[in-house]
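User: Before I run my own analysis I want an independent prediction to cross-check against. Here's the chain; please return only the structure tokens and, at the end, one sentence I can use as a sanity check.
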Amino acid sequence: MAKNRFICEICHKGFPREQNLQLHKRGHNLPWKLKQNTPKDEVKRKAYVCPEPSCIHHNRAHSLGDLTGIKKHYSRKHGEKKYKCQKCVKMYAVESDLKAHTKTCGKKEYQCSCGTFFSRYATC
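Assistant: Structure tokens:
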């Protein structure tokens, strides 16, 4: 992939990803909503599709952007859940998901007015 494919029209600084350019444009006080590509601007990107025919990500229109993403997707949605939480009954196919879960498992600190406990205040 070419470096700095997305160029700021104000200061001509280049970025490898369009999202980086959009965040940069906020510094110029410009609208930073992702613009739609016109047919001449279209760049063919490599598509990583799920090998499971019944999955939505099997369709190229819903493909994922990188190989790691499709591998994790396949493990999470179609693979064996082999990582079990030691505190509860939940199981995960990806070890990093289990690690993220264990940070909050069993830590229900916020009580709603209805009496239910939650691990995050925003859930109340």
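Sanity check: Helices lie at 18-25, 67-78, 95-104.
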